[in-house]
Every structure is written in C-alpha cells, then in structure tokens.
Design goal:
By secondary structure, the protein is mainly α. The protein has one domain. It is built from twelve helices and two strands. A hairpin with a 3-residue loop joins β1 and β2. The protein starts with a helix and ends with a helix.
Amino acid sequence: MLLPRFLTAVFGLPLILFTIWWGQIPFLVMVFGIVLLALYEYYNLAECASLPVFKSVGLVCGGIFSLGICFLGTSLAEEWGSPIRSVFLPLFLAFTLALFSFFNFFSRKKENAFIALSLMWFGNFYVAWTLSHLYLLREMKPEGLYYTYFLFFVIWALDIGAYLGGIRFGRRRLSEYISPKKTWEGAVVGSVTALGAATLCKVSFSNFLNLTQTLILATVIILVAQVSDLSESLFKRNVGVKDSGNLLPGHGGILDRFDSFLLTTPLYYYLLVFFLNK
C-alpha cells in the first residue's frame, strides 16, 4: 500500500507544483480536469447507491459553472465589460435551473425528478463551485502563487502527518462509522505537522501576512480540511464504497485526493480577501 502511494506522490506532486507555478492556461486545464473528474466520481457514488442522477447533464453544467467562475473572476476576463461580468454567473444559474427543471418533464423516471435535480445541484456546488476557487486563489494580488502554495503545503502536511501519526500512534478512532482508520492521535500529529509547514511557509515566502494571520489561516485550514475529508468519507460510507475511484494508485480517486480542498478552498480564499483588505 505504501509503495503505490509513494510512487503516485513522486510523479504527481512535482507536476502539481509546476502547474501552480506556471499558472494561466496550464493551471486552468489542471483545475478544470480535477473538477470534472471529481464531479464524475461524485455522480458515480450516487449511482452506487442506486440514486437517480443526470450524469451527463450534470457534468456539462458543472464544467460551464467552473469555467464561468474562472473567466469571470480572473484576469482572463479583463476585456469583458463589468456589467456583463456582474450578471453572467447569476444569469447562468437562473437559466440552467430553468433548463434542467424543464428537462425533468421529459425524463423517463419522473417520480425521481426531485432527487435527481437535487443531487445534480448539490454536486455542482459541493465539487465544482468549491474547487473552482482555486482559479481565484491563484489570481489573487499581490502573490496568488504563494497563497496557493500555502494552501497545498498545509493540507499536504496535514494529510502526511495524520497518515503517519495514525500508523505509529493511532489508538482512538475519530469516527468508527465514518472512517475507521482515522484516529485522534493521527489528527493531532497531522495538525502539528501542518502548523509547522505553515510557519515554514511564512519564513520562506509569505511577506504579506503577519505571523498571527498566518497561524489563523493555518488553523482554519487544518480544522475545515479534516471536516471536509470526513464529509466525503461519510458519503462513501453511505453508499458502501471504499474509494471514489481508482485513478490514483494508493490514493483512490480524484475526489479522494482533493476531498480536503472541497470545503477549505473557498473559506481560505475569502479569509485571505478579508485579511488583505483590512
């Protein structure tokens, strides 16, 4: 188990770090691919539970939603007029809600329309909307590159620390039902490791936030990332599967690998906006 996990990290982490550093179109492509693959796995989880889903329609909607956030929230949209930018996403949401409600009238299983539409919209917000904040984070001024690195380094340190700490010291389960392998000891070791990574980031490249702000952000990331991780684990437990997919050897699926980012990324982004505009 450790070898596939290690090999995936050896090849995957440098690619992610390089794409974050490059930014622009390569970063857009990476995040957009993550969004679509994670959304695809979300719909697969729903199908495993024999729940009605509009997978194809949901993927198209989620993809457009993600690109809308990117193009209207980053420098790629600078040539657009501000009135168009300000109404595009609300207009898109209103249009798609009407369109897919209309789509239900022609569905063969009309008795499941409410559940299918609810699952589709929840998936688009739970996956596409949250992860698409990575576009906005990377474009933040003055140092979106370093803000993005900070988020990834803290979450990765949390995951690695929790994994190794759980193996070495794990005794008491965080939640026997949700995730039997996660322990309080692992969570504590992971949190300490993540705080250390945040402090190292502050010393190395973070010149726009003071130490107090850095530690506040790190603490929020640590707490919310673990809740986000457990939320995805709960969904998997509900449908009776271990992993959301098998694309990443030793890690499961894309949704498994980025589950800690789901709830964390938008909250981290808006906290940064608050701190930088005080």
